[in-house]
Each structure stands twice: as structure tokens, then as C-alpha cells.
Design a protein that fits this description.
heterodimer, A: mainly beta, 7-stranded mixed β-sheet, 4-stranded antiparallel β-sheet, about 50% strand, B: mainly beta
Chain lengths: ~120, ~120
Amino acid sequence: NAGVTQTPKFRVLKTGQSMTLLCAQDMNHEYMYWYRQDPGMGLRLIHYSVGEGTTAKGEVPDGYNVSRLKKQNFLLGLESAAPSQTSVYFCASIKRTASSTDTQYFGPGTRLTVL
Amino acid sequence: AQSVTQLDSHVSVSEGTPVLLRCNYSSSYSPSLFWYVQHPNKGLQLLLKYTSAATLVKGINGFEAEFKKSETSFHLTKPSAHMSDAAEYFCVVTRRGNTGFQKLVFGTGTRLLVSP
């Protein structure tokens, strides 16, 4: 049971390049999330998905797209990277229950630098 | 709307002395509260969570937090700091919508520095 995994761990892009970050979970969780973490700002929600084939915008969605073609995978895409997207990106997942106290499980993060 | 305020961006302690990381919350609903820890270049790990079953919550690695509704606080404490406690700590408030979607609202983090 690997939990939540993210690839790649590190990436350096030039402005205007594109890339896709992959998140995979093996816990059969329905909900998946993408966050970005910037110094002094905590984690902010980019996009999320409540199930296969569905996605929705979070707090800071501009410049990102997502897809959830399979229940276990959640992809985050940058079509034209900008220096403002330099950040650490975290994926998380959680099962679908009615309890507010269930725990989101986080991946190890992807450190992205855009030059 | 829900929010959390972590009152200190940095806290410095000596090894063996008590740790106090402060968190105040704002919530229109009965809140669910968490503390997460992030060690350098690592992901986030759950330390503890408030489930309304008890106001004093015990977590991993000797940490605990007390929910005080009258003060809207959920401060994290540990009696004796260890060098391995040096990390960033996040206070988080959450709610679950009718669809089951859980939204986490993170504080800005407190960096704990532990000196020998």
C-alpha cells in the first residue's frame, strides 16, 4: 500500500513550457485534491475532484487544468508555465464519508521551478 | 467562512523545554480541527485532530492540543521538545459539505526551531 504518490519529485521549466504532474492513490478514495504551497501562505487549493470524470475549481485555479480519467489518478497540467507558478505542489485524497474528521492523505510533493 | 490564524510564524525553544504553538480559529459551524506537521522537504503528516469527543486531544510524538470554544483556540503543546520536532506546523480547520466534499483551510504555518 503506497498511499499517495506524486511524479516527478522535482522539475525545472522555462517560461512558456508545459508539463503534467501525476498523482496516484491506491486507497480507492473518491476525492482528490491539488494544492500549492508558497512561503508564508500555507496550502491553497487549486482544483479538486469528487469522482472519476469530474473536476472543480478551488481557490487558485488560474493557469492550471486537471483531469481525472481514472479513479486512482489525478493529473495537474500547466499549459504555459509562468514564474508565478514556482511552488511546491501537493496532492491529497480522502474517502467519501459524512465525517468532517476523516483525514486527508498527502503525497510527498513536487517542487517546481519556472525560470 | 472558516479561517485559522497561527499567531507565531516562528517559535524557538531549547531541547527539553515545553513547546506551545498557538492557533485561533473562526467558524460558523462546529469546527473540525487538525494539526499537521511538515518536516523539511517532506509531505504533510497528521499530528492530531479534534473530533468533539474530548476537548484535550492527544497526538503522535507526545503532542497534544486543547480545544477551547470560549477562546476559539486550538493550541498545540508538548512538555519537552526534541531535536526531531524541528519542522513546520499547520493548524487546519475543515468542514464537510452535504456531498461529502471536505474543504481544508490552512493556517500560514509556524516554524519550530529546536536548539541543543
